[in-house]
Amino acid sequence: SAYIDFYNDDKQIILATVDGIFAISDLNNVENFKKIKSNIFSLITYEDFYTNTQYGIKDILVYKDNLYVSFINKKKKDCFNLKIIESKINKKKLDFKTFYETSGCIDKKNKHGYLAHQGAGGRMFAGDNSIYFTTGEFRNRPLAQKKENDFGKILNIEFKSGKSKIISIGHRNPQGLYYSKKNNFIISTEHGPKG
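RESULT FIELD:
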């Protein structure tokens, strides 16, 4: 799978594949994407990111001249969380650094279950001065009801400070997110309980 967003006053499209390949194309010439080099391979070093469809990039967001990428991060052995990295958009090379990382991580061997592919969330949308970011509970359902962690939530993360606050709790796997600036409301959709 892959993710796209518009760039340069909607004249261009930036594409990211689930395993970290980036490309750009003019909107009037989408048959001709040009690959963009990046440092993502030195930032994400666990093999499953590139080979296991359960992991990988979850969304991209272009905001002004920056590219934000959310993905499933291996924090330590058998323990995963979500991370957002950012880079100034440069058509020759993207130089990513960490923008935000969820607190803690979810151990694959917990008593409630684990599934990253249908449980991570990762959708992003830009507000005025912040990113709205969805996180899933990776099938560890009790986490979604607890305010002490970032999992199973919709978060609001300030661009300048990187500080986050919880907007909504109790989410399973929120993969759709829309923010209406005009009406000041959020619509979120879940990867449903029957698949």
